[in-house]
Structure formats: C-alpha cells, structure tokens
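To close the section, here is one more complete example, presented without commentary so you can practise reading it yourself. The ligand is 5-O-phosphono-beta-D-ribofuranosylamine.
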Amino acid sequence: MRFAVLVSGRGSNLQALLAAEQSGELAPAEIAVVLSNQPGAGAVDLARAAGKPAITIDHRAFAGREPFEEAMLAELARHRIDAVVLAGFMRILTGRFIDAFPDRIINTHPALLPAFPGVDAPAQAIEHGVKLAGCTVHFVERGVDTGPIIAQACVEVRDDDDAARLHERIKAVEHALLPQAVKLLAAGRLVREGRRVRRPAEET
Ligand code: GRF
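Output:
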C-alpha cells in the first residue's frame, strides 16, 4: 500500500515513519511521497535526506481550499497513492479530498480524543488541569479530530509541565503509535464497525 505523508512542520512523526520503514517495520506500507503545504518545513528536508520525493504545495498560492486540494490530489494520483497519513498537517481537509480516500486517511493528534480537539491540544490539556494526556491516531472524516479511533496512548502530566514539555513527551509516544497504525492499515488489519475500529488477531 503506497502512502503519502502530509506535513506542515518539523516532521518528527515523519522521521518515525521513515525509521520504521528503514528497519522493515512498516511493511506492507510504503512511503511513496511527502507533501508539505509549508515552504521551508523541516519535514521536507527529512524526506529528501531519506531519498523520498518531497513536494511543497503552498496553500497560500491558491484562491481557496478546493483548488489547493485539487493540486494535492493531482500529485497523489501522479504518485499512485492508496492512502494518506496526516503527520502534523495543519490544514483542514474538505469532503472532496476525504472522499477520494475512504477509510484510507489517518491522523495523529496530541490529545486523548474526544478531549481537546483542534489546535494547541497540549496547552488545552495543561490549561484544563488534566493529569493524563496522550495521543490519538484516528481515521479522518468530515469534522475536526472526530473520526473513528484506531489507537491511543497515555502520558502523565507533571506538575512542572508546560505545553512544550508535555508535547515533547506526547510526541515520543506518537512516534511509536503512528507507524504501528500505518502498518496495520496497510496489512488490512483494521476493521471498522461504525465508530469502533477492531484489530482482528493475526492468523498463524
Ligand atoms: C504532532 O504532535 C501531531 O500530533 C500534531 O502536530 C505535531 C507534529 O509534530 N498534529 P511533527 O511535525 O511530526 O514533529
């Protein structure tokens, strides 16, 4: 299964995916292309250093969301992409894009959804005073951070945490969870039943 990874920032989750692929832990998933909407994103350099095609499509160069997404969809078609990972991609996708990859787009979010959707989730968690934070890998559907949950992991909030420190520890768990989810999706081992996502046992 050929994946595109969509990024906007530093790309530590992309790095985790690339490392998993390198060590054979991502198969049968393959990272075929990296798309960034953000010129100068560190993730693009990481992709190129790993020998992956990396393309920047600056959303500001388009008259609106639809033409921007059409440009992305054209690149995904050109690279014969089957599935998409949002790894720190900071644009909201329209139904048109989401419908092009039914049950084939996954996102990682730095909070235990449905708590703290949207931007600055670690800061929201600190502000609220929760004792457990974490990350969620989920299918992307219409609606921000609302899709069916594939996997979650907890991180304890420490008394001296600020949003940046907490986010770094959340990222460490994301780096393990996201490659696992990508592998399971590619292997056909994620079964959706309404909002619930099951992982049938591996056949021996
Ligand atoms: C991650 O915490 C992800 O959950 C959020 O944005 C962050 C991206 O970090 N959506 P990076 O660019 O992968 O380092």
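Once you have examined the tokens, check your reading against these statements. Residues 9-13, 43, 87-88, 108-110, 171, 174 surround 5-O-phosphono-beta-D-ribofuranosylamine (CB under 6 Å). The helical segments are 12-22, 42-49, 65-78, 95-99, 121-128, 163-186.
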